[in-house]
Amino acid sequence: MSTRIVLRGGSVIGADGPVRADVSIEGGDIAQVGTVGHDPADDVLDVSGRFVLPGFVDAHSHADGLLGDPEVTRALLRQGVTSVIAGQDGVSYAPGDGAYATEYFAAINGPHPSYRGGGAASFLSAVDGASPINAGYLVPAGTVRFEVCGRHDHPASDDERRRMAALVAEGMAAGALGLSTGLDYVPGVFQDAAEIAALCAPVAAAGGVYVTHMRGGYESNTAAGIAEIVDIARWAQQEAGAPLPVHVSHFHADADILLGQLAALEDAGVDATFDAYPYTRGCTLLGMPLLPPEVSALPRAEAVAVLADPSRRAWLREVGERRASQSASLGPDWPDMITLAHIASPGPAWAHGLTLRAAAERAATTPIDFALDVLAASWLECSAVMAVRSPRSSTELARVFSHPAHTGGSDGIFIGAHPHPRAAGTFARYLREFVRDLGAWSWADAVHHLSALPARRFGLERRGAVAPGAVADLAVVDPSAVADLATYERPRETAVGIDDVFVGGVRVLAAGEPTGALPGRGLRRAGPLPAAGRP
């Protein structure tokens, strides 16, 4: 008979705040919450003065190929994250052999240590027993298009749509949670709303969710992206005969714009949630705001040849400067707003952590030429932290995060010598800044946004609650000490104040350090999603 684990002396979060309660774990599930009797055989952990919360669900993660990396999983566990949603932005390993994601998203996801084919079923199986973290998977629409249409930018034919929809249906049958798009990446930038709706029909039929990096760079362009979502949801429902729940990825814009567009989704009858992280800067491929999509879509060797061709350099320079200066996020001061996060080539690695302007001045060249040179030297494997023209204050972010449809999402990218701090700090920052410092969230709000709602949105059965019968994915939080330490200058500093974490009833973090246990599971969709609802 297995030993019962008892978390004694702490508090759980009720509707009115913390409530003193013990929590017992048996067979991977929560058995009791309240007063738990003493048994000499119990494995007892004293959690006096701390809160026992349901483990956090990172609704937007790029840890797809890094779930076995000890540094990555330690950073997640120290934030209380027990599950991540992978397959984001329309590009990941499955379906296919994983080569496209490994090439195009090298600076975001990197290579997968074991996936070589087999689709969503294979990806999810590779997580089972190989990580301390759980992972769900979204079928990436860009990867699906690449499998059927290759690198072409033409509209998909009826036959190609049918073949793509069949790949999506196969992924849903294997337990995928839904479909993701990345409509500023390639080949997502080539997918129109009708094509996406055709891919969403099997998602709606299976009871999954459509997750989208909207088209057009967010910020002041948000209305166009939301209008396209409404069309996609409406057309997919007509074809599938079932509603299509929607989740908007890393939704960042001025609060009035963002909240107004969420109201537009609700008025259109779309069941929508969104994630947004507590930072004012973003992070993406360096080439995305600078290179023409037709160049980004090329095989790397061909793209590098274009970048190295003196006869093409004037064109690339003109296009890159125009794209960056006209970007909704960057604007005319773009060389000061792009900080180099990952450069795969050792030659220009000295530029990590510098803005493009500062790096160009040191190299005695122009910002656009330095960027193009670095992209060529690295075979496009470069990422950058991106500032925005109108950074939001914490008070304005609190308005966004207080919307009941908000879920916690880091958009965490772990690859690079100078990554964005959101990978190591997001969830601790929510608790430190928006619960303790600002009081914008209660602890019950934190549970809703970081655990309960994302678990419900993505169909993670029996997760997101501290209640008898729930899976024992738990984070033990010191409410007075929890804090993010990662900064833009020191982005890899791990969080503090969450020292004990359980996944499936197994202790994976003890006294702040990983135990080496690997109880993580590939999280398969349990069934049709309920409506996101409200707290």
Automatic annotation (TrEMBL):
SUPFAM superfamilies: Composite domain of metallo-dependent hydrolases, Metallo-dependent hydrolases. InterPro entries: Amidohydro_3 (IPR013108), Metal-dep_hydrolase_composite (IPR011059), Metal_Hydrolase (IPR032466), Metallo-dep_Hydrolases_sf (IPR050378). Pfam families: Amidohydro_3. Signal peptide: none annotated. Residues 44-508 form the Amidohydrolase domain. This is Amidohydrolase family protein.
